[in-house]
Specification:
By secondary structure, this protein is of the alpha+beta class. The protein is built from 2 helices and 5 strands. Helix 1 (about 15-25) crosses helix 2 (about 95-120).
Amino acid sequence: MLRWRQMRITVPHSHGREEAARTVEDTVSDLLQAELPRPFHMTGMRKQWSDSKLQFQTAVAMGPLRMPVRGTIQVHDTEVVIDIELPPLLSKFIPEERLKEAVEARIRKRLAEKAGGKENQG
């Protein structure tokens, strides 16, 4: 029996909870897209906040094939914790470690861009 893959990524930040939450909100929709090989694409993103936790669900699609991807992003005062559940078939197309590194890099980049924008405003 194939099992869902659990992936946890923790990214430190210095933005405060609200600013980090806004960054996460802006980033979650394209979190995985850059690492998907063609002809895969993300479709049907749904997200819902509950306090400082964002729950999301989407699908990786190729033609009529849809593989659900779901997870949570918990925003803390000094870190963002991303938990993603990946369908077993997806790991046949994208190495899990590469996906993890890419998601972490994207979140770090977006948080750094926010920090740079804040410094340039003051």
